[in-house]
Amino acid sequence: MHLIVGEDGLARPSWAATDPLLRDYYDREWGMPVRDETGLFERLSLEAFQSGLSWTTILRKRPAFRTAFAGFEPDAVAAFGEEDVARLLGDSGIVRNRRKIEATIGNARATVALREDGGLPALVWSFQPGETPAPQTLADVPTQSDESRALSRALKARGFTHVGPTTMHALMEAVGIVDTHLVGSHRRGSSGVWAADGRLACAGS
């Protein structure tokens, strides 16, 4: 089964049906619109750290990530230097991967620089498609799209790293740019951006 009805009578995909942390994330956060710079930078950073790991690992470490990376405030992270890199590499609460740590600092600097050209939220949301997928099963959920590939190219051109098209598609799912909740899930169409049929809920969303 791709959807599991819980004791509360709500249908969720199998990945969000048992672990309380994942269920809460699915019910409250995943797929809801994020349009502020700090929120998008955090999620972009965490998606990059997640590459090759389980999302559960990242969620469990998110409080430590927020502490280690100054709440993901781009200006603060952009000011990190070699001493901060060493500190982060010694922090067992986060994923201690030098390339990903250095990418996060570089991406913070790129985020600050992008303000002169409209800012990170405007750029990321400019790649919202006209329609969103309507997956019936987990196998129907795409891992990339034309828009995620274009977003990846646009971010790389502005100095971002660890922003491949699969990672960017995961970001787009997480922040509501697309809605890949399975048809029949209690969260399908709940973001206010997308209707359950895969169309934009309202003009200008």
UniProtKB/TrEMBL annotation:
It comes from the Bacteria. The keyword DNA damage does not apply. Zn(2+) binds at H181. One of its GO terms (biological process) is base-excision repair. Keywords: Metal-binding, Zinc. InterPro entries: Adenine_glyco, DNA-3mA_glycosylase, DNA_glycosylase. One of its GO terms (molecular function) is DNA-3-methyladenine glycosylase activity. This is DNA-3-methyladenine glycosylase I. It comes from Agrococcus sediminis.
